[in-house]
Amino acid sequence: MLAALVVGPSERESDAGLTTAVLSGTTLDRQEPSARVAYVDVPETDETESGRSDEVLAYAQIVVTLTSLPSVTGVRFLRDGQPLDVPRADGSLARAPLTRRDYTALL
Predict the structure, then answer these.
(1) In sequence order, which residues have a C-beta less than 8 Å from that of residue 41 and are 6 or more positions away?
(2) In sequence order, what are the residues at sequence separation of 6 or more whose Cβ sits closer than 8 angstroms to the Cβ of residue 89?
(3) Is the pLDDT of residue 71 over 80?
(4) 107 near 64, Cβ under 8 Å?
(5) Contact 72, 36 (CB under 8 A)
């Protein structure tokens, strides 16, 4: 599912107005099944890559997508294997596992 977000919408989906804010190079690092947490490694933000600066939307897309799986209730983000503080919908930063509730305002 994460790979599909990175690839982005098909031509038909794009024509329907769907987009992705997720940067290429975003990968699933690992999943801890007992904790039901997925770890996602994100690249350094490069606004020239997509012409967008939708960082909060990118995190929201990842969290909402991965937590739709029964095996994932939270997502932690890493950069180069190190824990990363990421913005919630309200602009506050979090390192703890993020859930769909953190992005409800965007849904």
Answers:
(1) 26, 27, 28, 29, 77, 78, 79, 80, 81
(2) 56, 60, 102, 103, 104, 105, 106
(3) yes
(4) yes
(5) yes
Q: Contact at 8 Å (CB) between 98 and 76? A: yes
Closest listed residue to residue 78, CA positions, set 102, 62, 54: 62
pLDDT digits (tens, 9 = 90+) for 1-59: 777 777 788 899 889 988 878 878 888 888 888 889 999 999 886 555 544 458 899 89
Extended beta strands in the chain, E state: 27-32, 37-41, 74-79, 82-83, 86-87, 93-94
Instruction: Give me the residue spans of the domains in the chain.
Output: 2-106
Q: Which two tokens stand for residue 84?
A: 């990363």
Beta bridge partners of 26: none
